[in-house]
Structure formats: structure tokens, C-alpha cells
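Sample 3 of the quickstart, ligand adenosine-5'-diphosphate:
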Amino acid sequence: MAKTIALYSIKGGVGKTAATVNLAHAAAVAGHATLICDLDPQGAASYYFRVRPARKFGRKKLLQGGKEVEKNIKGTDYELLDILPAAFSYRKLDLSLGDTDSRKALKEIFRRLTGDYDYIFLDCPPNITLVSENIFRAADYVVVPCIPTTLSTLTLTKLLDFFAAEKLDRRKIIPFFSMVETRKRLHREVMGELAGASEYRFLQNPIPYLAEIERMGLTRAPVAAGFAGSPAARAYRELWNELARLITVG
Ligand SMILES: Nc1ncnc2c1ncn2[C@@H]1O[C@H](COP(=O)(O)OP(=O)(O)O)[C@@H](O)[C@H]1O
Ligand SMILES: [Mg+2]
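Result:
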């Protein structure tokens, strides 16, 4: 049975897609059958893998699940790594989910795929919507990139409150520090404060702010596909190892 890992934040531009692409690639390199489901209508993860959905694939097919979804899973240039590309019509996924009146629709859909993979990564759009609520129920883990500023802590607290209010399992939430610039005093201070705070459970390995990661828009490849020994490749690999250990231990 695959473990489902959602990369999620209320905020955009915090490194969700970068983490999805690079952690999923690290999982595949480590020998695990891995699937990325690009759930963001902007399709950034799909773009990085140079993959597009079939013209007929969209939110309705996604919600039909089963064969309609399996048919649209594509291979990538990397062994053991597949992707279900996002369709632009996902921007109205909220409406369709409203019709089905189900907060577990996505959970059912991904459950069908878990036999074929060890890990399923969900690259999520920002905001708290019916889609995100569905994602929270579908995912075993909700991994949250946090830029170490005061505001990002606030959004993390909001997410924890939302989980409590909706009676979701808060233990699913696993934050990590993203786009860290240690020369910035604020970053150092916020990390110092939060790293040990037991209510947040931050992963120990941060992802630094690195031009190499920014350049993925040009290279359109996971960072470790270029040079596996680069600082960015190493940072994601170490983050993945830590996360994988945590998942295995439970
Ligand atoms: N650690 C990082 N260092 C430098 N640039 C980054 C880093 N993480 C992400 N970026 C860049 O910042 C932008 C937003 O990142 P992205 O992963 O798309 O965020 P999100 O999916 O949360 O909207 C992208 O251009 C990406 O290449
Ligand atoms: Mg994104």
C-alpha cells in the first residue's frame, strides 16, 4: 500500500512544487515506485517533467477515477517515476467536488492507485478550499514548506487550527523550512524558535535558498538529474531520507 504525501501550504510561492518534484525524484532514485499527482491547475510540476495531459482529460475524468485516471498517468524520463499531469479545468475542481457532496472523493480515487506505487506525491494548489480538505483526508502526510519568517508561522498555525476544527488528524502535518537564507537574521531567529517547538514537529533538514533550484524553470528537470552531488540535490535527498524514516517508523 502506497503512502500518500501531499505538499501543501495555504500560501503560494513557498516551494511546494520544487519539493514535490525533487522529493519524488529522490524516492524514485532510492528504488521506490513513485507517482506524482499534479493537482494544481497551473501545472508547474507537469511542466518540469515536460508532460501534458491528453486533451480530453480534465476534472470530470479525474473524479470518475479508476481507468480514467490510470489511462492518463504518464512515464517521466526517470526510472520508477510517473506523473498524472494537471488539467487546466482543475481550477473548477471545487465546483465538481461540491456536486458530489463528498469530502472523501479524492481519497477514494487515490486509494485505487496505491497498489501500484510505494509513494504518491500530491502537488497541491494554495488556499484552503474543498479541494484542500479532500486532499487532507486523502493524504497520509501533509508536508508543509515554511519560509522562516513570522508570517509563515502564522499560516502554519492557521492550518493546525483548521485541522482541529475539522477533526482531522493533526499528526499528519509535517512542516519543513524552505528557501532558507541563513545570512538573514530573521530566518535564523525564526528557525531557532520553531525548530524545537514540539507542537510543530519541524523536520530537521532545511532546504536552503539556492539559485540551482530557481533555475529548474529553465532546466525542466529535478536538481539531482543534473548533478547528484550538488548542494540542492543533497538537501532534498537528506530531507527525503528524514521523511522516509519518519514514515517507516510511523
Ligand atoms: N529553495 C529554493 N531556492 C531558490 N528558489 C526556489 C526554492 N524553492 C523554490 N524556488 C523557486 O521559487 C518559485 C516558487 O517555488 P514553487 O516550488 O513553484 O512554489 P509553490 O509550488 O509553493 O507555489 C519557483 O520559481 C521556484 O523555482
Ligand atoms: Mg506549485
